[in-house]
Amino acid sequence: MNKKTLFDKIWDSHVVRKIDNGPDVLFIDRHLIHEVTSPVAFLGLKKRNLNVMYPDLTFATADHNTPTINQHLPIKDPLSAKQLQTLRDNTKKHDIVFWGLGHKKNGIVHVIGPESGITLPGTTIVCGDSHTSTHGAFGAIAFGIGTSEVEMVLSTQCIMQPKPKSMRININGKLGDSVTPKDIALFIISKLSTSGATGYFVEYSGNVFSEMSMEGRMTVCNLSIEMGARGGLISPDKKTIEYVKNREYTPKGQNLENAIEYWSKLHTDEGAVFDKEYNFNSSEIEPMVTFGTNPGMGIRISGKIPKIDSEKDNLSSYLKSLRYMGYEIGDKMLGKKIDYVFLGSCTNGRIEDFRTFSKITKGFKKSKNVTAWLVPGSHRVLNQIKSEGILDDLESSGFKVREPGCSACLAMNDDKIPPGKYVISTSNRNFEGRQGPGARTILASPAVAAAAAITGRITDPRKI
Amino acid sequence: MPYEKFRILESSGVPLEIENVDTDQIIPARFLKATERKDFGKNLFRDWRYDQDNTPKKDFILNSKTYNGKILVAGKNFGSGSSREHAVWAIYDYGFRCVISSFFADIFKNNCLNIGVLPVQISAEFLKLIFNSIKKSPSVKLKVNLIDQEVSISGNSRKEKFEINPYKKENMINGFDDIDYLLNMKSEIKNFANKKPF
Question: How far is B125 from chain A (nearest CA, A)?
Fold first, then answer.
C-alpha cells in the first residue's frame, strides 16, 4: 500500500477536484478573518453580487489594528475605526460570528481559534494572515492566504492550490536549561534560512515536539512561515485531544468519540518518504537571538555576529542589514543595550509565555531604562494571567499588562517602537521598520525577553 | 478582480538588487488600513522611497530618473513574510506588470498570479546578466513572453525559459480569475461538503 505522510492524508481527503496540469481545488473546513485582509474580499462579493456559501465556517475577530489600552473608548484613528466598523458590518450582513473589540472571546486570530475549539486535528484552516501556520500544532493543514483567496473561500469554501512538497524536521534529545520552543524555531530557521522551506509543508517530529506543550507546538508551527514554508504540522496525540476536548466548537458526544477515533489514526505511515528531511540534535540548541533584519539571521545568545556566508548570501544585503541594526560583524550579542521589551503576538502571547516571563522576573524589578509592553494574545489569556496570580507578580516587578491584540508585532496601532530604538521582541519578524519606522528588532524567547527587561541588556536567562 | 490580460511584455526594467525583500518593505503595515483597493502604488516601498518627513530618498531606485519600466527586477527570495495581497496591489498599481527574480516567496507568488502580476523565476546567473545589462544601458528592453515562457534581453542572444503552471498561464493570458472557475463548480462543492463528517 502507498505510504502516506500526515500531510498527504489530510490534503487528499480535502481535494474536491484535481485539475489537469493545474492546482487542486481544496475544501476549507475553517476560515478565520480579521479586519485588515477581509474588507476588499467582501467588496469583491458585493461587486459580483455573491453570498457567503457557508457562513458558519467563517469566524471573525478584530486584532491587527486594535488599541491595547483603553479598548472601551472610541478608536481615535479614523482609518482604524473605519476598518473595524467595516468588519462589523460585513459579518452582520453575512451572518458570520464576530468577536470584536471588547468581546470576552476577542483576541489574536491564532490564539482564539485553538482556545475556542475552532482549530481541530485533521482539518484545513485558512486565514488572510501568514501565521495561520500556528494551527498546524493540532495536526491540521493551516496556512495563510491572500485577499483574492479570502474572497474565494467566502464565496465557495474552496481555494485552488498546487500541493506543496513535503519536508520533515526531526529533533531528538534532551533540551538544555531555558531552551524554549521559540529557541528551537529560531535555531531551525537560522539553519535553513528564510527561504529554506519555500514550496514545502513541514512536519515536525521527534521527542522534542512530542514532549512539548500545545502552546509550545503552536509557537513552533507559527514560525514555519519564517523559513518560507507554507505551514508546519505536528501529529495529534493524547495531549492534542486533551486540549481540544470540551471547547466551545469541538464536536460533542458521539461525534466527539468518532472524531477522536479518526484523530488517533492521523500520523505519518512508517516508511513514508519526504521530499526533504533534516535531523538535528537538541543538544545543539541554546537560547537564541537575532542580530539582523530577517528571522534567519539568528545565533546562540552567547555567540558573535558571524561573517557572511558568501555562498549563501549577498554581501551588500547582509551589510545593509547590519547597518540598519547598528551592529558589526564580530560583535557579541550579550550585553548589548536594549530600550524596549515586547512580550506578546501570535507567536508568544499565550499563557505559557507569560508564565515563563514572570518566573524569571519574579523578585526583580524592571530596569528603569526599559519600556516594557506585555500584551496577552486574548481575553482568555488575560483572565488566566489574573487568576494564576501572574499579574500580581508582574506588577510587583514594575510591569503593566495591556489589553489583547497584535500590538507592536506589526505596529499597525499606536504601539510603535521609536526610530533607532532596540526592542527585544517575542514576536516573529525583525524586518526593517516592522515594529515602527526605524525600529530595531531582536527576536527572542519570553525567557530572554524577561532577562533583558530586568537588566536593560541582552542577558542570558540562565544567569539570572 | 479582473485584470489586464498578459501575453508578451516588452519594457525596460527597474533593478532592485537587494535580496530577501519582504512584504513589510513593499508595503509597510501602517498602510494596510484601507477598506478598498485604492492608491496603494504611492506607498510602494514607502520607507525605502521616502524619509520620515516624506522627502524622496535620492539613492532609491524608484526615485531615479534613469530607470523606469513595467518590469521590476529584484534579488532572490522576493516577497517573503506576510500574506498581505496589498504588496502585490502596490506593485500593480504603481505600474509594474511583471517581477523577475531568481526566487520568490510562496504566498507572494500566489498572490501575484491571482491579480495579474507575472512572477518570472530565472536562474541566478541570468538574473545577474539582466542586472548588468540594465546597469550598462538603463533603457535596454526586456521581453517577457508568456506564450513561449521565455525571457530575453534586447541585443543579447541569451534567453531563458521560465516555468508557470499551465492552468495559471491560461488564466493570465485570458485575464481569468479563480473565483469564476470555483463558482461554476458550486454543486460539486456542496456534494463534497455534505459528505464531510464534521
Answer: 14
